[in-house]
Sodium Bile acid symporter family protein
Amino acid sequence: MLSFLVRHSLIFMFVVAILGFLFPSASQAAFPFLPVVLFTLMTLTLLGMKQHELIQRLRQKQVWGYALLHSIGFMLLAGFIGWLLSFDQDLLLAVVAVAATGSLFATPAIVRALGFDSLQAMAMTIATTLLLPVSIFITLILYQDDNVDLDLVSYFLRLVVFIFGPMLFSFMVHRFAPEEVLSRFLIRISPYTILLVFAFPFGLIGSFRVLFDTNFELALLYFLIATALCFLFSLISYCVYRKQGPAMALTAAITSGNRNVLLTYSIAGALLGPSFLPLAGALQIPTYLLPALTRWISKALLK
């Protein structure tokens, strides 16, 4: 059963998002546990990477150039589009916060399932995650309601726990644990990490379902905005990296479309305003549909 889930994981991620929408009570019940799942997934993903090779990738200018496009570039674009379309302050804050968000830590697994370079995707994911403290801080300063104070102490404590904590733990384990023992452990545990990924679309979409039940027209607007953001970011990244070959272009497209909105919420919380969680929930359907579409596109391009 587990091997079947792993083999068809790209499809099941989308199916789980739909199940979360159909069963909102279960989705909302799962939501409080997602930060723990996020921390565990980030730690296990980092443990599974070859530290030396990963650091070498992180030294490449190309990786940080991508991270700037993923965060700052798309923040400026989202802010301009929101201003052009006269979004209200809460929705504008949510849209720019999504654009500031780093890539999902599940992205390397998705990229690996498509047969591309997962280590490159991991380097790009970490770079965007390391830029998140700066990008989300800028977002909060520029777009947050003046009546809400930014608690810097709480903000930086969450940064330490959810970003630097897993990175430091992974580094220490690789430094002191015997590689043979660590490798055996990772081989046994790695198939189960896909089950952790399923928790995100299932638990996050509940907030969108609540909006859907109370205000259908607004929910439809949020869904259209979320879908447009996901595919616009992916399309732009694909076009920017197209000259480097289809594999790199599609990797950039997936990494851009996959947004770790739970990490952003775990760091900034209610400071992101009331529109963020419904928009993040609406984002789950296009986010987890994108890899399945990318697999189909990649087969067509690589023929």
Observations:
- The chain has 16 helices and no strands.
- The chain has a mean pLDDT of 85.
- The radius of gyration is 18 Å.
